[in-house]
Design a protein that fits this description.
single chain; mainly alpha; 65% helix; 0% strand; elongated
Length: 83
């Protein structure tokens, strides 16, 4: 059962979290290879993208929380009563 009210920002949150997790896995896998100049450049590119996605995730979470506090939530569908 979902307890957190849904806002217009809700659909973006799981996608951003998933993207961030994939970037962390990619960075981990790239870091496991032997170190070279090209790997260092690639790791830096991963780190920059991780920072960008983290910033976007934090701002979206703040917008989501602000929308909840302001009462700007999406209407919920009534429970299905076809019994």
């Amino acid at each position: 059962m979902q307890t957190d009210p849904q806002t217009r920002h809700s659909p973006a949150l799981p996608e951003l979290r998933f993207s961030l997790n994939l970037l962390y896995v990619g960075r981990l896998l790239l870091g496991m290879k032997a170190s070279s100049l090209t790997n260092d450049e690639r790791i830096d590119a991963f780190d920059e993208r991780i920072e960008d996605i983290t910033d976007e995730l934090v701002s979206t979470e703040l917008l989501h929380e602000a929308a909840i506090l302001a009462g700007d939530v999406l209407p919920t569908a009534p429970p299905d009563t076809d019994s």
